[in-house]
Structure formats: C-alpha cells, structure tokens
Amino acid sequence: MQTVTVLGATGSIGCNTLDVINRHPDKYRIFAITGNNQLKLLMEQANKCSPRYVVIADPLHYSAALELAKQYQVEAEILCGQQALEDVSSAPEVDSVMAAIVGAAGLLPTMAAVKAGKRVLLANKEALVMSGALFIDAANKSGAQILPIDSEHNAIFQCLPHNFTYGDLGNSGIEKILLTGSGGPFRERALDTFGSITVDEASTHPNWSMGRKITIDSATMMNKGLEFIEVCWLFGVKSKDIDVVIHPQSIIHSMVQYVDGSVIAQMGNPDMRTPIAYGLAHPQRIEAGVKPLNFKEIVDFSFKTPCYERYPNLKLAIAACEAGQCATTSLNAANEVAVEHFLHGNISFCDIAKVNEATLNAMSMVEMNSIQQLLEQDSLARVKANELIRGKFQC
Ligand SMILES: NC(=O)C1=CN([C@@H]2O[C@H](COP(=O)(O)OP(=O)(O)OC[C@H]3O[C@@H](n4cnc5c(N)ncnc54)[C@H](OP(=O)(O)O)[C@@H]3O)[C@@H](O)[C@H]2O)C=CC1
Ligand SMILES: CC(=O)[C@@H](O)[C@H](O)COP(=O)(O)O
Ligand SMILES: [Mn+2]
C-alpha cells in the first residue's frame, strides 16, 4: 500500500490523480489533499477519499473551510498555510507526492517533498524551471525519485533505455530528444489577426483539457518553452540535444532518436491519467480508465517545425534556457504575471511575449545559489512585469 499526498488536488491534474487512485483502493491510500480556492470541491474530495489531512493554502479561507468540513462530514484534520503544505509533503508516513500546484506557488511544497526523499510525481513544471540545479541537487542528496508526469517528459522517460545515465546521451546511443507539441489553437491562424485573439479562444486547447494557465501557455507555446527547460533538467541534456516538433494531433507525446536511425515514440490518446498512472505504479503498470488508441480512427498524423514569428515565447524560453538559471526564473515569473493579466483582459495575447521579453531585458542576471535567491529573483521579475504592464503595453 502506497501513501500519497496530492498537492493541488482540486486542479485538473489533481482530479485526474484522484480518479486513478480511486480505481485502485488496494494499492493507494491518501494521506493529504490540498487546494486553494475551490473549497467545496476539496471537501467533496475529502469526503470521498478520507485523507488524514486537508490543507487550504490560503489561511484567509480557513474558517470557511472548517464550516464546509462539517457540512461535508469530513473527518480529516483541516490545516492551512505554507508550512502545512510543506509538512504534508514531507511527513514520514508519505511515500509519494503528486506535485500538481500550478506555478511558482508549488516550489516550496515540492522542494519539501524532494528534500524529504519522497517519490515525487512532478507535474508542476514551473517549480523545476525556476529552481533547476538546486532541485536536482536536492533530489540527489536526499535520494528522492523524480518521476515526470508532464506528458512529454513522461514519454521521453518511457523511451529512454532503463540504464540511462543522467546527462549521458552518447553512452546510450542517443542522437536527439524530440519534444512534441500540438502548436495550440492558433497553429493555422493568420498572423495579422493575432491582435484580436480573445481569452475564450486562447483558453480552448485542441486536444487537452487542462487548467487555465497551462492552456494559455500552450496557445503561446510558452508551455513548450518551459518543457524544453524541463527536459534539460530532468535528463541532464543541453539545448542542442532537443528538437521541438509540432504534432497537431497530440498522439505521440515525444520521442527519442537513436544513432542507428531508430526513433522510439510513446503514444496514446491525450489523457493525463496515462502518465499519472505510470508515475503512481512505476515500475509496474496499472489500469487508468484511458480509452485505448484506435489506429483505424486516426485520420491525420502530421509533423511540422515551429515558427518563431508565430511563437515568440518559444524562442525566448530557449534563449533563457541557454542563458541560465536567473533568466529562466525571471522568464517564468514574468510569464505567470503576463498570463494572469491576459486572463483578466488587461493586456492582449501578443503582449504576453512582449512583457516577457521586456522583463528579461530589464533584469540584471546574477548567479542563483539558494532557494532564497530564486524567490527574490522571482519577486523582482514580478514587480518589473507588473510595472511594464502598468506602463500599458499595446499589441
Ligand atoms: N493539466 C494538465 O493536463 C497538465 C498540467 N501540468 C502542470 O501541472 C500543474 C497543475 O496544472 P493544472 O492541474 O492544469 O492546474 P489547475 O489550475 O487546474 O490546478 C492548480 C491547482 O493548484 C492549486 N493552487 C493554485 N494556486 C495556488 C496557490 N497559490 N497555493 C497553493 N495551491 C494553489 C489550485 O487550487 P484551487 O483550484 O483550489 O484554487 C489547484 O488545486 C501545472 O504546473 C501545469 O503546468 C503539466 C502537464 C499537463
Ligand atoms: C498534457 C500536457 O503535458 C500538456 O503540457 C500538453 O502538452 C499541452 O499541449 P501543447 O503541446 O499544446 O503545449
Ligand atoms: Mn506537457
């Protein structure tokens, strides 16, 4: 029996994780679930999966949460705040932590799990993008096992040889990592109409049902940029080792190309329960409720190269990856701010990349040696991005 904490249980990944876990009551027990604003959903989940703890991230919601807990007959202890998130990630009773809080808010609870040597199911890509070497070093020190949940990284993990050594592509005969992406909803849209893209249009992903921030990131391809950086840290590779390939159908979830000409791909219907189940059960496989891929139903199966004019955020992210930690931390922070402003109608779709670029250009680049320093850089970049937005960006 594996004991699991689900950080971000009320989100898209969190709900899918509970769905997979519910299918296997003999294998998994929930220790804690956490949420932020969706208190009712969190209490419904608690009523169903009977965790020992329910954590509300924002202490301002605590009394409302206590009331709802009574209403939903939740027997778990209700906790709140940052320390509680870290405590349920690092408690000795916990075997695995699903890191599925969105954005930089997930860094400290995820790091707590890493430092405590847990099996960390990593969905929260922003945590790795903003902390890079510190994250990987902490895992090496504690013995934490990092299992990628992001579909592409999970695919790459599945396509690598079992004896793959971190950073050593040559020894495994690997030529390239082929990181696939759908290209988002605006893959074919005329560039001269980008100025009128609405929030609703950008919030409609062609293949995946996901949280609102990652959905916007997919539309700008910042998601692929963050994933590019994520590949570098998860597998110890360099920018030159990765090619981004647009695959509009999201059936192949990424590939590894070998020197003998073989290309190994991982495929499946676009349903996050596959990588979640893989992470939970590794090295075994468990049923995940996912519709099997039916090749007779596949009409198109195509590939293309991304164009930076259409996806300036992808170019920025690759350049930041090459520039180093300070740049990736700053870019991630600026992007979180810009996406939030876009969702609130304060800036246009094209402004997201402009804010990101202007923020990066305005930040001094320093070496990042501690989590404290990362958090300070993250705050500085947020202040700068907000300042730039107040100065009114126009598309
Ligand atoms: N959705 C997907 O299919 C995929 C997601 N990912 C990554 O997984 C992560 C989660 O994505 P997704 O599930 O889509 O996101 P959602 O927006 O659906 O869910 C985010 C979760 O984080 C919680 N949360 C939000 N802000 C805070 C905060 N300040 N402190 C603590 N908790 C907070 C939310 O709580 P509440 O809802 O209660 O407010 C919710 O539980 C992201 O990093 C994303 O990039 C990666 C690959 C695929
Ligand atoms: C499901 C998942 O892993 C997402 O990151 C997904 O890949 C987003 O789609 P894009 O390929 O359009 O960014
Ligand atoms: Mn992904």
TrEMBL record:
InterPro entries, per database record: DXP_reductoisomerase, DXP_reductoisomerase_C, DXP_reductoisomerase_N, DXPR_C, DXPR_C_sf, NAD(P)-bd_dom_sf
Pfam families xref list: DXP_redisom_C (PF08436), DXP_reductoisom (PF02670), DXPR_C (PF13288)
UniProtKB keywords: Isomerase, Isoprene biosynthesis, Magnesium, Manganese, Metal-binding, NADP, Oxidoreductase
EC number(s) recorded for this UniProt protein: 1.1.1.267
GO biological process terms, semicolon-separated: isopentenyl diphosphate biosynthetic process, methylerythritol 4-phosphate pathway involved in terpenoid biosynthetic process
Binding-site residues, NADPH: 10-13, 124, 126, 211
Residues that coordinate or bind Mn(2+): 150, 152, 227
Cofactor: Co(2+); Mg(2+); Mn(2+)
Family from the record: Belongs to the DXR family.
Protein name according to UniProt: 1-deoxy-D-xylulose 5-phosphate reductoisomerase
Organism, as annotated: Alteromonas hispanica
